[in-house]
């Protein structure tokens, strides 16, 4: 039927009693999910490395001109103790930021130190999802300092490991965890 104001629309009234009894449960479920995701939004690991030992590892992180990066990159250092039979024991990770980051490792104990850069994408979530990992087996010696230098330049990662003994800085080979057949 046509009127002077355009076509008439008929609206049916739907009983919402069934929906209204379920809605509070759905809302509570969503609120719990949002709260839990906020607690774990940083990284995917729940264990934080205690970092209470004397600092003998310096990690220099250079992300180039961070303001020009199209996305947000989070960088973490994971510390794994390596036993004599080549099994690993995850000790935790530390979020690091550009500049110098100091970490304490147990001297004389073999560790696998892995640096993971995780791309969180831009503010719209585009270009997210890649992870770059560089790691090395290391047995810190008493009285020595160690440096890991990480540069992100022109979308390429550079990772170097050094041992410092007084004024001497010696480049160490980056030995992956593969000799121990660990994942």
CATH level-1 class of the domain at 57-180: Mainly Beta
CATH architecture group name of the domain at 57-180: Sandwich
Looking at the structure, what is the overall shape? Answer: globular
Helix-strand category: mainly beta
Tell me the CATH topology of the domain at 57-180. Answer: Immunoglobulin-like
Largest sheet: 5 strands, mixed
> What is the number of helices?
1
Your description of this structure?
The protein is mainly beta. The protein is built from one helix and eleven strands, in the order E-E-H-E-E-E-E-E-E-E-E-E. A five-stranded mixed β-sheet has the order 6-3-9-10-11, with no helix packed on it. The relative contact order is 0.16.
How would you concisely characterize the structure shown here?
This protein is mostly beta strands. It is 13% helix and 41% strand. It has one helix at residues 17-39, and strands spanning 2-3, 6-7, 57-62, 73-82, 88-96, 99-103, 111-119, 131-138, 145-153, 156-165, 168-172.
Topology (elements, then pairings):
Layout lengths: L1 E2 L2 E2 L9 H23 L17 E6 L10 E10 L5 E9 L2 E5 L7 E9 L11 E8 L6 E9 L2 E10 L2 E5 L11
Parallel strand pairs: 3-9
Antiparallel strand pairs: 1-2, 3-6, 4-5, 4-7, 7-8, 9-10, 10-11
Keywords:
single chain, 183 residues, mainly beta, Immunoglobulin-like, five-stranded mixed β-sheet, 11 strands, 41% strand
